[in-house]
Design a protein that fits this description.
Layout lengths: L14 E4 L2 H8 L7 E5 L5 E9 L4 E8 L9 E7 L5 H12 L3 E5 L7 H7 L6 H12 L6 E5 L2 H6 L6 E5 L5 E2 H7 L4 E6 L7 H9 L3 E4 L7 H16 L4
Parallel strand pairs: 5-6, 5-10, 6-7, 8-10, 8-11, 9-11
Antiparallel strand pairs: 1-4, 2-3, 3-4
Helix pairs in contact: 2-4, 2-8
């Protein structure tokens, strides 16, 4: 559902027929006649195509452009973001997906608002996946990351039980990010960003017990949305495909 993956080779100026699971993925990405989407062929090459016909059972896509390299980063970044107030979560989703994150999990921390409190003011969470799709279209990515909400830091940490580098931004104290990245050349990174007001010390202790390394981005205090966007950009530059 998150990627239009074809079981055939594709060439420029070719019109291809899409049905079955790739068609479901096309619809998930908001495809309609005239839409331009990124598709991946059987050899994992990415192409751009325009939908010229669309029905319930199939779509026709005219391929008009290819990419010299994959649109998806070789670095898998799972961003865990303490839920901020107002439109900041929407901005984080949009910009970090444009930068190439693989998934975004919002969660309730000690000092952050809960989804229920946020939704009581104005319901917005239902838009998160739509924002993800639009960010993918804007950045011409092939894959739509999932965006989910988890009710606590404890639940968020359960997502991070696999292998990979685990880092947590903490404004009070932490390791040098550049040093940590050079010591851990991982292709998978779990990154936790705290709320306005930062993490409580017991939360940092809990994360450290699960293998997270506290890091600090210099002496300036960044807004939570600035920190998330800057961190993803740095990770992609150092270990991913921003160059």
């Amino acid at each position: 559902m998150d990627r239009i993956l074809l079981d055939q080779l594709v060439e420029i100026n070719q019109e291809i027929l899409i049905e079955g699971p790739p068609l479901e993925a096309l619809r998930f990405q908001g495809g309609r006649v005239g839409s331009i989407l990124t598709v991946t062929d059987s050899e994992e090459n990415d192409f751009r195509g325009r939908i010229v016909r669309l029905s319930k059972r199939q779509a026709s896509l005219l391929i008009f452009e290819t990419f010299p390299s994959p649109t998806e980063s070789p670095l898998e970044i799972i961003l865990l973001q303490a839920l901020p107030e107002k439109e900041r979560m929407e901005l984080i989703i949009q910009k970090t997906i444009e930068l190439g994150v693989s998934a975004v999990f919002a969660f309730k921390s000690n000092k952050s608002i809960s989804l229920e409190e946020r939704e009581s003011k104005q319901k917005k969470a239902h838009r998160w996946q739509d924002i993800a799709v639009k960010a993918v279209q804007q950045s011409r990515r092939a894959k739509v990351p999932s965006v989910k909400y988890l009710p606590s830091l404890e639940e968020a940490l359960k997502v991070c039980e696999g292998d990979g580098l685990k880092i947590l931004l903490w404004e009070k104290s932490g390791e040098n990010l550049k040093t940590i990245l050079r010591q851990h050349l991982s292709r998978k990174i779990y990154a936790i960003v705290g709320p306005e007001g930062g993490f409580a010390e017991d939360e940092v202790i809990l994360a450290k017990a699960r293998g997270f390394i506290p890091i600090k981005l210099g002496e300036r205090i960044l807004r939570t949305e600035t920190a998330a966007i800057a961190l993803v950009g740095i990770l992609q530059y150092e270990l991913g495909d921003l160059n």
